[in-house]
Design brief:
about 425 residues, Pectate Lyase C-like, 20-stranded parallel sheet, eleven-stranded parallel sheet, binds 2-acetamido-2-deoxy-beta-D-glucopyranose, cell wall
């Protein structure tokens, strides 16, 4: 008898739960049904306030979960314009029902301005992340501001010995494919603004990325272990590389970019601490560099393995960048490096139609190691003048081999003249 009562009580309890759950869903459905239709998930309807003060993370997470779980064929999370949303570190995870989700950002997103107010404290990997997605478009006229200025002042004297500080990447797309990201403005990230990691077919265009020229490690877009990535029609003004192309990247197309201030477009650094790292099939076309420290650069550490190959830089204009063309197989930002017998191999690199001015006298620097010379480097139609009209430009060559054709100024005598290409 007692057990029957118990079972009855349980049934009633379950029914009540089901009832409240379904009325909650109904309520949610009503809320989101704000004139757009059933596929729109406006963060405001999920509790986000947008006053720039209250933590809106939950509203975003709930809107995402609803969109991701929705049976609509093209669900869209909407972040309305005219509001500022404060977000703690947040990851939007995939395996969603739809493979055509839109994340429409027209408002402003901000991170907590005090590093101590970040919920991950001194060990934050990223601020906003998208993971495990297939078929996502992140778009809109909104701004994503990492409020990094207080992070920039924190640093460890030596990153290798017991330093517990990890600065967060602003915006991460990882383990995903078929992602488009366009129209947005990114500002003041604590570290790099955008990172694409372990992803395939990621297409970025019409972005603006902006941070002070002296902000440390604020790369514009970093690519790592990713295939088929395009970055088009984008302006990047930061304190580090405009784009950096790291290990495991291939089929990368970077086009119509305005870069500077910053450190230029870099492949690498590759081969740190003896690692085997690879980059191949990179095409950089129609890029202007404004007062950057480097223009197009390939940098590798001594002692590494692997390769950087099949790389083409074309239609590059330098406006007083310090060194427009650099290959550096002795990369060492901290002065404690030793020369070693192995190095990441650099080969099949094309420079074509590279014009403008250089801030330093040495406009072209090809520094390759004796054990692993750079092979098949070709230059065609290069004209780099000194920013100061009265000074000439020079090249520096060490263990670099290949061909040159057409006018190549400054002369790069380590490349053999050949007019057959
Ligand atoms: C994907 O979603 C967008 C925006 O909702 C829509 O314009 C487009 O037609 C959809 N594409 C497909 C293949 O469903
Ligand atoms: C690269 O991405 C584009 C667009 O998403 C796609 O059409 C193309 O097939 C992809 N190429 C490769 C090699 O994956
Ligand atoms: C980038 O701009 C060029 C020139 O205006 C245009 O032809 C091209 O379609 C644009 N690319 C993208 C991906 O929007
Ligand atoms: C080259 O890039 C610039 C932006 O830096 C763009 O305005 C121009 O249209 C591009 N040229 C071509 C031919 O796409
Ligand atoms: C490594 O070798 C290069 C080229 O010979 C030289 O310029 C550089 O000073 C060497 N570095 C060290 C730390 O010995
Ligand atoms: C040299 O590099 C070019 C451009 O990447 C490539 O087409 C060519 O096959 C390479 N030549 C050799 C001998 O590897």
């Amino acid at each position: 008898m007692a057990s029957l009562k118990k079972i009855l009580a349980l049934v009633v309890l379950i029914e009540c739960t089901i009832l409240t759950e379904s009325s909650r869903l109904l309520e949610k459905k009503k809320k989101k049904n704000d004139g757009y239709g059933d596929n729109i998930f406006n963060v405001v309807n999920f509790g986000a306030i947008g006053d720039g003060l209250k933590d809106d993370s939950k509203g975003f997470k709930d809107a995402w979960d609803a969109a991701c779980g929705s049976s609509a064929s093209s669900p869209a999370v909407v972040v309305p314009q005219g509001k500022t949303f404060l977000l703690q570190p947040l990851t939007f995870n995939g395996r969603c029902n739809s493979n055509n989700i839109t994340f429409q950002i027209d408002g402003k997103l901000i991170a907590p301005s005090e590093p101590s107010a970040w919920e991950c404290k001194r060990n934050c990997h990223h601020w906003i992340g998208f993971k495990n997605l297939d078929g996502l478009s992140i778009q809109g006229s909104g701004t994503i501001n990492g409020q990094g200025s207080k992070w920039w002042k924190l640093y460890c004297k030596d990153y290798n010995t017991g330093c517990q500080l990890r600065k967060p990447t602003g915006f991460l797309i990882a383990n995903s494919k078929n992602v488009e990201i366009s129209g947005l403005t990114f500002e003041d990230s604590p570290k790099m603004h955008i990172a694409f990691e372990s992803s395939t077919s990621i297409h970025a265009s019409h972005l603006r990325i902006k941070a002070p020229g002296n902000s440390p490690n604020t790369d514009g877009i970093h690519i790592q272990r990713s295939t088929n990535v395009t970055i088009h029609n984008t302006t990047i003004q930061t304190g580090d590389d405009c784009t950096s192309i790291g290990d495991g990247s291939k089929y990368i197309d970077i086009r119509n970019i305005e870069c500077g201030p910053g450190h230029g477009i870099s492949i690498g650094s590759l081969g740190i601490m003896g690692k085997t790292e690879t980059v191949e099939f990179v095409h950089v076309k129609n890029v202007s560099f404004y007062g950057t420290t480097n223009g197009v650069r390939i940098k590798t550490w001594q002692g590494g393995h692997g390769y950087a190959r099949n790389i083409k830089f074309e239609r590059i204009t330098s406006y007083a960048s310090t060194r427009p063309i650099v290959i550096d197989q002795f990369y060492c930002p901290h002065k404690h490096c030793k020369n070693q017998t192995s190095a990441v191999e650099i080969s099949n690199v094309v420079y074509e139609e590279i014009h403008g001015t250089s801030h330093k006298e040495i406009a072209v620097q090809l520094s390759c190691s004796e054990s692993t010379p750079c092979k098949n480097i070709t230059m065609k139609n290069i004209n780099l003048r000194n920013e100061d009209q009265n000074d000439k430009t020079l090249s520096h060559c060490l263990n670099a081999h290949g061909l040159r054709n057409g006018r190549v100024h400054p002369n790069v005598p380590c490349l053999r003249f050949d007019d057959n290409f």
